[in-house]
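Notes from the 1:1 (GR / supervisor)

We went over the backlog. Supervisor wanted to see one worked example end to end before approving the batch request, so GR pasted a single chain during the call. The sequence is below; no edits were made to it. Supervisor asked that the structure be written out right there so they could see what the output format looks like.
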Amino acid sequence: MKTVSIILACKNEQETLPIYFKAVDPIIKSIKDYAFDFIMVNDGSTDNTAKVMNDIYEKRNDVTIISFSKNFGQNPGIFAAFKQNKSDYVITMDCDLQDPVSLIKDICDKFTEGYEIVNPHRGDRKNDSWLKRTTAGMFYKVINKLEKKEAIPSNVNAYRGLSKRAVDEINKMSETDRLFMPTIPLVGFKSCEVDYVRGKRVAGKTNFNTDKLVTYALDNISVATSRPLFLASKFGVITSIIFFLSSLALLICYILGLCQVMPAYSAITVFMIISFVFLAASVVITFVGINGLYEHNILINTRNRPMYVIDYIRTQQDKQK
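Structure output shown during the call:
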Protein backbone atom coordinates (compact mmCIF):
# COMPACT_ATOMS: atom_id res chain seq x y z
CA MET A 1 0.00 0.00 0.00
CA LYS A 2 1.30 3.44 -0.97
CA THR A 3 1.61 6.15 1.68
CA VAL A 4 0.61 9.82 1.48
CA SER A 5 1.57 12.61 3.86
CA ILE A 6 -0.81 15.57 3.98
CA ILE A 7 1.11 18.73 4.83
CA LEU A 8 -0.62 21.55 6.71
CA ALA A 9 1.39 24.74 7.26
CA CYS A 10 -0.58 26.67 9.88
CA LYS A 11 -0.51 30.05 11.55
CA ASN A 12 -3.27 30.96 14.01
CA GLU A 13 -5.59 28.14 12.93
CA GLN A 14 -6.88 27.03 16.35
CA GLU A 15 -10.49 27.17 15.15
CA THR A 16 -10.05 25.50 11.77
CA LEU A 17 -7.88 22.48 12.67
CA PRO A 18 -10.55 20.46 14.55
CA ILE A 19 -13.08 21.21 11.77
CA TYR A 20 -10.55 20.15 9.15
CA PHE A 21 -9.89 16.73 10.70
CA LYS A 22 -13.62 16.04 11.05
CA ALA A 23 -13.99 16.76 7.35
CA VAL A 24 -10.91 14.92 6.08
CA ASP A 25 -11.19 11.68 8.08
CA PRO A 26 -14.17 10.23 6.12
CA ILE A 27 -12.40 11.06 2.86
CA ILE A 28 -9.11 9.34 3.63
CA LYS A 29 -10.93 6.29 5.07
CA SER A 30 -12.78 5.88 1.77
CA ILE A 31 -9.52 5.71 -0.23
CA LYS A 32 -8.51 2.07 0.03
CA ASP A 33 -5.19 1.93 -1.83
CA TYR A 34 -3.38 4.59 0.20
CA ALA A 35 -2.43 5.03 3.85
CA PHE A 36 -2.41 8.61 5.11
CA ASP A 37 -0.60 10.58 7.76
CA PHE A 38 -0.34 14.29 8.53
CA ILE A 39 2.58 16.66 8.97
CA MET A 40 1.42 19.82 10.72
CA VAL A 41 3.72 22.84 10.83
CA ASN A 42 3.13 25.47 13.49
CA ASP A 43 4.43 28.64 11.83
CA GLY A 44 4.90 30.84 14.88
CA SER A 45 1.24 30.99 15.85
CA THR A 46 0.29 33.52 18.52
CA ASP A 47 -2.99 31.86 19.52
CA ASN A 48 -3.62 28.32 20.81
CA THR A 49 -2.76 26.57 17.54
CA ALA A 50 0.23 24.79 19.14
CA LYS A 51 -1.97 23.44 21.94
CA VAL A 52 -4.64 22.30 19.49
CA MET A 53 -1.97 20.55 17.40
CA ASN A 54 -0.58 18.74 20.41
CA ASP A 55 -4.06 17.68 21.53
CA ILE A 56 -4.67 16.21 18.07
CA TYR A 57 -1.25 14.56 18.20
CA GLU A 58 -2.05 12.85 21.52
CA LYS A 59 -5.39 11.53 20.26
CA ARG A 60 -4.20 10.21 16.89
CA ASN A 61 -1.51 7.86 15.61
CA ASP A 62 -0.97 9.52 12.24
CA VAL A 63 0.32 13.00 13.09
CA THR A 64 3.76 14.62 13.12
CA ILE A 65 4.24 18.17 14.44
CA ILE A 66 6.97 20.59 13.38
CA SER A 67 6.94 23.77 15.43
CA PHE A 68 8.96 26.79 14.33
CA SER A 69 10.69 29.08 16.82
CA LYS A 70 8.85 32.04 15.24
CA ASN A 71 6.87 32.94 12.14
CA PHE A 72 8.82 32.19 8.95
CA GLY A 73 5.99 31.91 6.43
CA GLN A 74 4.00 29.28 4.57
CA ASN A 75 6.76 28.41 2.09
CA PRO A 76 9.39 27.55 4.74
CA GLY A 77 6.69 25.54 6.51
CA ILE A 78 6.08 23.43 3.42
CA PHE A 79 9.79 22.91 2.75
CA ALA A 80 10.41 21.93 6.39
CA ALA A 81 7.70 19.27 6.04
CA PHE A 82 9.34 18.08 2.81
CA LYS A 83 12.55 17.43 4.74
CA GLN A 84 10.60 15.39 7.26
CA ASN A 85 8.61 13.44 4.68
CA LYS A 86 9.13 9.68 4.27
CA SER A 87 5.93 8.85 2.38
CA ASP A 88 5.56 7.86 -1.27
CA TYR A 89 3.53 11.00 -1.98
CA VAL A 90 2.68 14.32 -0.34
CA ILE A 91 -0.33 16.59 -0.62
CA THR A 92 0.07 20.22 0.46
CA MET A 93 -3.07 22.13 1.35
CA ASP A 94 -4.64 24.72 3.66
CA CYS A 95 -6.56 23.56 6.71
CA ASP A 96 -9.30 26.20 6.42
CA LEU A 97 -11.22 23.97 3.95
CA GLN A 98 -10.90 26.48 1.13
CA ASP A 99 -8.98 23.63 -0.46
CA PRO A 100 -11.71 20.94 -0.63
CA VAL A 101 -10.74 17.69 1.08
CA SER A 102 -12.93 15.78 -1.37
CA LEU A 103 -10.31 16.45 -4.05
CA ILE A 104 -7.77 14.27 -2.21
CA LYS A 105 -9.36 11.21 -3.82
CA ASP A 106 -8.96 12.72 -7.30
CA ILE A 107 -5.32 13.53 -6.58
CA CYS A 108 -4.67 9.97 -5.45
CA ASP A 109 -6.37 8.65 -8.60
CA LYS A 110 -3.87 10.67 -10.63
CA PHE A 111 -1.03 9.20 -8.57
CA THR A 112 -2.35 5.74 -9.46
CA GLU A 113 -2.34 6.72 -13.15
CA GLY A 114 1.36 7.48 -12.91
CA TYR A 115 1.41 11.26 -12.47
CA GLU A 116 4.10 12.57 -10.15
CA ILE A 117 2.85 16.15 -9.87
CA VAL A 118 -0.86 16.93 -9.60
CA ASN A 119 -1.93 20.57 -9.81
CA PRO A 120 -5.45 21.31 -8.56
CA HIS A 121 -6.64 24.10 -10.85
CA ARG A 122 -9.17 26.71 -9.81
CA GLY A 123 -11.70 26.47 -12.61
CA ASP A 124 -13.97 29.08 -11.03
CA ARG A 125 -13.01 32.09 -8.89
CA LYS A 126 -16.57 33.29 -8.26
CA ASN A 127 -15.95 33.46 -4.51
CA ASP A 128 -13.22 36.06 -5.04
CA SER A 129 -13.88 39.77 -5.42
CA TRP A 130 -13.66 41.35 -8.87
CA LEU A 131 -10.40 43.06 -7.88
CA LYS A 132 -8.79 39.83 -6.69
CA ARG A 133 -9.89 37.92 -9.79
CA THR A 134 -8.52 40.65 -12.05
CA THR A 135 -5.19 41.08 -10.27
CA ALA A 136 -4.70 37.30 -10.03
CA GLY A 137 -5.32 36.94 -13.76
CA MET A 138 -2.85 39.74 -14.48
CA PHE A 139 -0.24 38.14 -12.21
CA TYR A 140 -0.27 34.80 -14.04
CA LYS A 141 -0.34 36.44 -17.47
CA VAL A 142 2.53 38.82 -16.66
CA ILE A 143 4.81 36.25 -15.04
CA ASN A 144 4.33 33.67 -17.81
CA LYS A 145 4.55 36.28 -20.58
CA LEU A 146 7.78 37.68 -19.12
CA GLU A 147 9.42 34.28 -19.06
CA LYS A 148 7.84 33.16 -22.37
CA LYS A 149 6.93 29.84 -20.78
CA GLU A 150 4.68 28.56 -18.01
CA ALA A 151 6.77 29.63 -15.02
CA ILE A 152 3.73 29.21 -12.76
CA PRO A 153 0.55 27.38 -13.88
CA SER A 154 -2.42 29.76 -14.00
CA ASN A 155 -4.87 29.63 -11.08
CA VAL A 156 -2.86 26.96 -9.26
CA ASN A 157 -1.87 27.76 -5.68
CA ALA A 158 -0.23 25.79 -2.85
CA TYR A 159 -2.73 22.92 -3.09
CA ARG A 160 -0.57 20.29 -4.81
CA GLY A 161 0.17 16.59 -4.98
CA LEU A 162 3.78 15.43 -5.45
CA SER A 163 5.64 12.14 -5.57
CA LYS A 164 8.55 11.46 -3.22
CA ARG A 165 10.89 11.68 -6.20
CA ALA A 166 9.68 15.23 -6.91
CA VAL A 167 10.00 16.15 -3.21
CA ASP A 168 13.53 14.76 -3.07
CA GLU A 169 14.55 16.86 -6.07
CA ILE A 170 13.13 19.98 -4.42
CA ASN A 171 15.03 19.15 -1.22
CA LYS A 172 18.26 19.20 -3.24
CA MET A 173 17.77 22.86 -4.15
CA SER A 174 19.98 25.13 -2.08
CA GLU A 175 18.30 28.54 -2.45
CA THR A 176 17.24 30.06 0.85
CA ASP A 177 14.64 32.25 -0.88
CA ARG A 178 12.77 29.35 -2.48
CA LEU A 179 9.07 29.82 -3.09
CA PHE A 180 6.77 26.85 -3.50
CA MET A 181 4.73 27.95 -6.54
CA PRO A 182 7.62 28.65 -8.98
CA THR A 183 9.71 25.74 -7.66
CA ILE A 184 7.32 22.96 -8.74
CA PRO A 185 7.59 23.56 -12.53
CA LEU A 186 11.40 23.42 -12.27
CA VAL A 187 11.26 19.77 -11.24
CA GLY A 188 9.50 18.54 -14.36
CA PHE A 189 8.19 14.95 -14.26
CA LYS A 190 4.79 13.83 -15.49
CA SER A 191 2.16 16.30 -14.33
CA CYS A 192 -1.54 17.06 -14.77
CA GLU A 193 -4.30 19.34 -13.54
CA VAL A 194 -7.62 18.61 -11.84
CA ASP A 195 -10.29 21.31 -11.69
CA TYR A 196 -12.01 22.40 -8.50
CA VAL A 197 -13.88 25.33 -7.00
CA ARG A 198 -12.19 26.94 -4.01
CA GLY A 199 -14.55 27.36 -1.09
CA LYS A 200 -14.82 29.94 1.65
CA ARG A 201 -12.84 29.84 4.89
CA VAL A 202 -14.82 27.88 7.48
CA ALA A 203 -13.46 29.73 10.53
CA GLY A 204 -10.76 32.13 11.69
CA LYS A 205 -9.19 34.95 9.70
CA THR A 206 -6.88 34.91 6.72
CA ASN A 207 -3.24 35.80 7.36
CA PHE A 208 -2.94 37.58 4.00
CA ASN A 209 -3.69 41.25 3.34
CA THR A 210 -3.19 43.44 0.28
CA ASP A 211 0.36 44.43 1.22
CA LYS A 212 1.40 40.80 1.78
CA LEU A 213 -0.21 39.70 -1.49
CA VAL A 214 1.62 42.42 -3.47
CA THR A 215 4.93 41.52 -1.80
CA TYR A 216 4.31 37.82 -2.44
CA ALA A 217 3.54 38.51 -6.12
CA LEU A 218 6.76 40.52 -6.55
CA ASP A 219 8.77 37.81 -4.77
CA ASN A 220 7.36 35.17 -7.11
CA ILE A 221 8.17 37.28 -10.17
CA SER A 222 11.76 37.83 -9.05
CA VAL A 223 12.25 34.14 -8.18
CA ALA A 224 10.55 32.70 -11.26
CA THR A 225 11.84 35.07 -13.95
CA SER A 226 15.03 36.68 -15.21
CA ARG A 227 13.90 38.46 -18.38
CA PRO A 228 12.90 41.74 -16.65
CA LEU A 229 16.62 42.31 -16.05
CA PHE A 230 17.04 42.72 -19.81
CA LEU A 231 14.25 45.30 -20.08
CA ALA A 232 16.49 48.23 -19.06
CA SER A 233 19.06 47.42 -21.74
CA LYS A 234 16.42 46.90 -24.42
CA PHE A 235 14.57 50.06 -23.43
CA GLY A 236 17.81 52.05 -23.39
CA VAL A 237 18.80 50.91 -26.88
CA ILE A 238 15.33 51.55 -28.35
CA THR A 239 14.95 55.03 -26.81
CA SER A 240 18.51 55.98 -27.80
CA ILE A 241 17.76 55.10 -31.43
CA ILE A 242 14.44 56.99 -31.35
CA PHE A 243 15.94 60.14 -29.80
CA PHE A 244 18.95 60.03 -32.13
CA LEU A 245 16.75 59.78 -35.23
CA SER A 246 14.39 62.48 -33.89
CA SER A 247 17.26 64.84 -33.15
CA LEU A 248 18.80 64.18 -36.55
CA ALA A 249 15.48 64.87 -38.29
CA LEU A 250 14.98 68.12 -36.36
CA LEU A 251 18.54 69.23 -37.16
CA ILE A 252 18.06 68.56 -40.87
CA CYS A 253 14.74 70.41 -40.89
CA TYR A 254 16.30 73.37 -39.07
CA ILE A 255 19.25 73.53 -41.50
CA LEU A 256 16.90 73.38 -44.47
CA GLY A 257 14.63 75.99 -42.93
CA LEU A 258 11.64 73.65 -42.88
CA CYS A 259 10.78 74.36 -39.24
CA GLN A 260 11.24 77.08 -36.64
CA VAL A 261 12.72 76.52 -33.20
CA MET A 262 10.36 77.43 -30.36
CA PRO A 263 11.28 80.46 -28.25
CA ALA A 264 13.76 79.44 -25.54
CA TYR A 265 11.60 80.35 -22.59
CA SER A 266 8.05 79.82 -23.85
CA ALA A 267 5.61 78.06 -21.53
CA ILE A 268 5.34 75.02 -23.77
CA THR A 269 9.13 74.64 -23.85
CA VAL A 270 9.40 74.73 -20.05
CA PHE A 271 6.50 72.29 -19.70
CA MET A 272 8.03 69.83 -22.17
CA ILE A 273 11.43 69.97 -20.47
CA ILE A 274 9.93 69.37 -16.99
CA SER A 275 7.72 66.55 -18.29
CA PHE A 276 10.65 64.88 -20.01
CA VAL A 277 12.80 65.11 -16.85
CA PHE A 278 10.04 63.55 -14.72
CA LEU A 279 9.42 60.83 -17.29
CA ALA A 280 13.10 59.98 -17.50
CA ALA A 281 13.40 59.95 -13.70
CA SER A 282 10.34 57.66 -13.39
CA VAL A 283 11.78 55.22 -15.91
CA VAL A 284 15.14 55.16 -14.12
CA ILE A 285 13.52 54.63 -10.71
CA THR A 286 11.36 51.80 -12.14
CA PHE A 287 14.37 49.96 -13.54
CA VAL A 288 16.33 50.52 -10.33
CA GLY A 289 13.40 48.96 -8.47
CA ILE A 290 13.33 45.97 -10.82
CA ASN A 291 17.06 45.42 -10.31
CA GLY A 292 16.51 45.79 -6.57
CA LEU A 293 14.10 42.83 -6.54
CA TYR A 294 16.75 40.55 -8.02
CA GLU A 295 19.55 42.03 -5.90
CA HIS A 296 17.42 41.21 -2.84
CA ASN A 297 17.43 37.55 -3.91
CA ILE A 298 21.21 37.67 -4.26
CA LEU A 299 21.50 39.20 -0.77
CA ILE A 300 19.28 36.54 0.81
CA ASN A 301 21.17 33.67 -0.83
CA THR A 302 24.68 35.01 -0.18
CA ARG A 303 23.86 35.49 3.50
CA ASN A 304 23.05 31.77 3.52
CA ARG A 305 20.90 32.05 6.62
CA PRO A 306 18.55 29.15 7.43
CA MET A 307 15.11 29.27 5.85
CA TYR A 308 13.56 28.38 9.21
CA VAL A 309 14.46 27.44 12.79
CA ILE A 310 12.68 24.48 14.38
CA ASP A 311 11.68 24.66 18.04
CA TYR A 312 10.66 21.01 18.28
CA ILE A 313 9.47 18.02 16.26
CA ARG A 314 7.05 15.41 17.60
CA THR A 315 6.73 12.18 15.63
CA GLN A 316 4.76 9.00 16.33
CA GLN A 317 8.02 7.28 17.24
CA ASP A 318 8.36 9.70 20.17
CA LYS A 319 5.28 8.12 21.77
CA GLN A 320 7.05 4.78 21.91
CA LYS A 321 10.03 6.08 23.87
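Supervisor's comment: The radius of gyration is 26 Å.
Batch request approved.
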